[in-house]
Every structure is written in structure tokens, then in C-alpha cells.
Amino acid sequence: MDELGRQLERIRLLMDYAVPDTAREEAEDLLVMYEEDRVALDLLHEFYSFLPEGENDGVREIRLLARKQGIFLLAAITVRSAYIYLVSSEGIEFQGLLDDGLWDRELLAFFGFKSRAQCRRQCAHPEELSVYEPVGRDLDLCPACLAGVGEEHELGCPVEVCPWCGGQLIHCNCRFDQLGLDTIESEGELLRFEKLLEGRGRIPYSREQRPAFPGE
Asked: Please, what is the Cα angle at 91 between 87 and 92, to 5 degrees?
């Protein structure tokens, strides 16, 4: 069983203790919707592990507040209330009640909110927020590092295109040619290559870069 499968099992076990019987079917349907999406599964696992109100509850919807550079600001709409979570490949952080909006000034600026008041106005109408789409269905997101269209890939992403040869950056030899090395063995060498890459001009994610999967 892969990691997503194991996480699904852990979430279902937590749901047995956390979700009221009257909300179980709806919560289960949501879990099936996101069963292959690691971002949503991280949110659900966090929610059911640490119920924000300390009482039984179930997630009914996940809505998208904002996203940037592979970092997601998501609203978990539950039977009792609604909450904000910050989710990325680095982990997940609970941000409080949706009605309160974001408090952190750095996060507000990062996601383009001019003020907390603006964020709260957007949070006041969760029904107007877009339903969070599983990453695998969203063509505007890199399936590997979750960069959006027009955003730079996370360094080391297998989808990133090399600006020197047009091949896959992690597979071509350009990184060694540019550094004059046979292998990259230190963080300093990696940082030097990153500077060379920035100087050349990194190629941001576009839909055309998305690998073709069976059925697409």
C-alpha cells in the first residue's frame, strides 16, 4: 500500500471516533473525492487528529481561499463551523476560524491581501469561494511541485524545463556543464547552480509542460 493509501486508512480510523453518525456519509463522500489528493488528505488528517473545537465534527467541503507557489490557503467547512488551514509540501498549519480571517501580516501580504479586513470580507461568504479541486484535475497546477501557471517550479521539480537545452532540468547534463562539474555534491554547489539558473531565466510552469497520464 502506498503512502496515500495508508493516510486514507488513518483518516477513516480517526473519522470513526470524530464524525457524528448523522454526518458520516457526507464526510465519507468528501474523502472519496480527495482520495488521491495529498493536499486535501493532509488537511483532513490534521482536522480529525486535532478537532478545533474539541467536539465531534465532520468536514463537509473544502474551499480555496488563495494559493501561491505551491502553498494553499484552504477553508474546511464543517458541520459546526469553518476553519482556515495553510497547506504545502512543507506541512500544514491551523490558522483559526474562517470568520476571523488571517491574523499573520506576512501571510496576508504573501497571498495579496491588502489588509486583514479585506481577508475577512472574502472569508465572510464561503459559498462564493471556489471548491478546492484535486490537484490531479487542475491543469493550472504542476502535478509535481504544485506551482501555478506562470510561477517558478520548486527547485528539483521533475517537470521544470531546462532554459539551456529545453529538456527536463533534472535529467539533462546542463547543470553539470554550467558548473564545470561531474556531480553536485554540496549545498554550496547547488546554490551556485540556482544563481546560474536565475541568471539564465527560469521557465515558469505552463499547461504545455504537464506530463500526459493515461486517460488524459
From this structure: 50
